[in-house]
Amino acid sequence: xxxxxxxxxxxxxxxxxxxxxxxxxxxxxxxxxxxxxxxxxxxxxxxxxxxxxxxxxxxxxxxxxxxxxxxxxxxxxxxxxxxxxxxxxxxxxxxxxxxxxxxxxxxxxxxxxxxxxxxxxxxxxxxxxxxxxxxxxxxxxxxxxxxxxxxxxxxxxxxxxxxxxxxxxxxxxxxxxxxxxxxxxxxxxxxxxxxxxxxxxxxxxxxxxxxxxxxxxxxxxxxxxxxxxxxxxxxxxxxxxxxxxxxxxxxxxxxxxxxxxxxxxxxxxxxxxxxxxxxxxxxxxxxxxxxxxxxxxxxxxxxxxxxxxxxxxxxxxxxxxxxxxxxxxxxxxxxxxxxxxxxxxxxxxxxxxxxxxxxxxxxxxxxxxxxxxxx
Length: 375
What we know:
- The chain is of the alpha+beta class and 375 residues long.
- The chain folds into four domains: 38-49 and 297-370, conserved putative lor/sdh protein from methanococcus maripaludis s2 fold (Beta Barrel), CATH 2.40.420.20; 52-62 and 206-292, Beta Barrel (Elongation Factor Tu (Ef-tu), domain 3), CATH 2.40.30.170; 65-95 and 173-205, CATH 2.40.50.100; 97-172, Helix Hairpins.
- It is built from five helices and 24 strands.
- Strands 1, 18, 19, 20, 23 and 24 form a six-stranded mixed beta sheet that branches. The chain has a six-stranded antiparallel beta sheet with strand order 13-16-3-12-15-14. A four-stranded antiparallel beta sheet has the order 2-17-22-21, with no helix packed on it.
- Strand 21 and strand 22 form a beta hairpin.
- Helix 3 (98-133) runs antiparallel to helix 4 (139-171).
- The longest helix has 36 residues, at 98-133.
């Protein structure tokens, strides 16, 4: 018996064989054609490291003045922009002047009256003196007009003093900047009644130079004095570490060591002065203070972002000469601004990965790009 397959089955079977035969037996590997991942690297560099001590400090303005009204009156003008820089002598507030100008005019009128009274007293005293010389007048009359002359002279002096006081009070209606600096928010709006009992109208804070104060324990001060010679404050260079971990580029110098010790904390307050031309340091700001002293030594420094930590300890990823990733265990020293000192595990000019760490694995080939200086 002979079996005949339907035509449709034969056709599908032929197509399947054709498709199977046309394949080359190889599958595409997308990973094999992908370019190596890009990473950013930094060369390990050697820097001079001096012994350091860190403290918590506070930025303080060299000069800080609260503007207050010295006379009573309604606030008529505010002539500054909040947060702007002002110069010494700039007119900032104006209090109504009418009442104080009227007081000056009144005292001037009283002075004219007093001058006329004194002039009359002088004439009368002169007359009585001449009569007395001719034995016509009495001594009692001379004494009387002399007393009135002195009274008129004293009244004139009192009126002139009252004029100076009135003019001084009028000058107080103009509130000017006593120092140069940056002015803060205005506490009162125009139209409010102000006076000596009112709160501060605004505050002016000097900007450059600026102070940093920080407490130092008596143990630390004694240790430094035993080791150092000469003026201790001249042997320290003070740096400020900002909130983002970067180091402020202007070094400071100690210019004051408090003469008393806080009995509660057994610390003395130390103050350093900094140049602040770009107004980066702001009054009241909390910062980390780094004091460097002694002779420096050369040490390797890498950015803190390159350092990773696992259960074994700290490590960095190094790109070797074949652009492959290697794991390098390290021993670290103190932080230095945005960098960390490497005591063991790296050599100068090795390339450590700072960006793209999460995209790579040990032994993988990468495409390194060296970070720009200062990045």
